[in-house]
């Protein structure tokens, strides 16, 4: 099934990934936990947010303004609470 021409994913086709941030309970990603990724692209003013759930039955994709990324990273980086979300730059 082809995406309509204005589909937001068409905006990132051909873009070069600049950085990937993983939000998880620990740096070693556990595929059984919910997960959240933030992906930025070179010379592009938006970032891709990908979220998966506990059950593995849903995935959510959003393309957001790059200006919102810092607040989303801070919101999910709870380093003072080891059992809660933390942000890691993916290698």
Outline the fold blueprint.
Layout: E1 17-24, E2 35-41, E3 46-52, E4 59-65, H1 69-76, E5 86-89
Antiparallel strand pairs: 1-2, 1-5, 2-3, 3-4
Helix content: under 10%
Write down the overall geometry: globular
- Strand tally: 5
Termini Cα gap: 32 Å
Largest sheet composition: 5 strands, antiparallel
Low-confidence stretches: none
Total number of helices: 1
Succession of helices and strands: EEEEHE
Strand order of the largest sheet: 4-3-2-1-5
* Structure class: mainly beta
Assembly annotation? single chain
Summed up:
With 91 residues, the protein is mainly beta.
Describe this structure in words.
With 91 residues, this protein is mainly beta. The chain is built from 1 helix and 5 strands. The chain has one helix at residues 69-76; strands at 17-24, 35-41, 46-52, 59-65, 86-89. Strands 4-3-2-1-5 form a 5-stranded antiparallel beta sheet, with helices on one face.
Primary descriptors:
five-stranded antiparallel beta sheet, 5 strands, mainly beta, 91 residues
